[in-house]
Amino acid sequence: MSRDPKTLALFTAHRPALVNYASSIVGSRVQAEDLVQEAWLRFDQASRGRFLEDATGYLYRIVRNLALDSRRRMAREGRLTAAADFEAVARTSPDTAPDPETVALYKDEYALVMAAMAELPERTRIACEMHRFGGAKLREIAALLGISVPLAHKLVAEGIEHCKRRRGRR
User: Where is the RNA polymerase sigma factor 70 region 4 type domain positioned along the sequence (predicted)?
Assistant: First the structure.
């Protein structure tokens, strides 16, 4: 908690507007709430023991920068996960009867992906499997593995990149 009641009062007064501002950038109110909380922690740390000339503007700038960083990270994650098209294996359902050529193609793809996954370190493999095959969110992966969300993202991205490289070698 802040030791300066002025900064806390400033944050409290502007919090709803900050959440709306962040939400308009990232497109998610829940994510905006998290970003505003992170902004508060950074603002509180930066304002300790010194006078900030435009404290309100500085607080909004922190929120803006965090929101833009988050949006870029999500876009990058989307590009990485879209590029790894080994989801096609999971999309074939048992109740549809694919032709023999499709079965052979996906059987080979599945074998390559499973071999690549087996080569990954355990934590990376678990994160990648949870995200790509289980549909788990990065926060869920982070909570299960006891790691940060950015590290969960890094593990998933590394796993996907490894699988893409292995698929390219065949």
Answer: 112-163
Give a three-class secondary structure readout of 19-53: HHHHHHHHCCHHHHHHHHHHHHHHHHHHHCCCCCC
User: What is the per-residue pLDDT across 73-104, written as a single tens digit (0 to 9) for each?
Assistant: 887 776 665 555 455 545 544 555 667 777 77
Average pLDDT, the chain: 81
Query: Where exactly are the structural domains of the chain?
Result: 5-79, 84-168
Q: Which two tokens stand for residue 68?
A: 């833009």
User: Residue 58 is encoded by which pair of tokens?
Assistant: 């500085």
- Identity of the residue numbered 169: R
Architecture of domain 84-168: Orthogonal Bundle (1.10)
Asked if 136 and 130 touch (Cβ cutoff 8 Å), the reply is yes
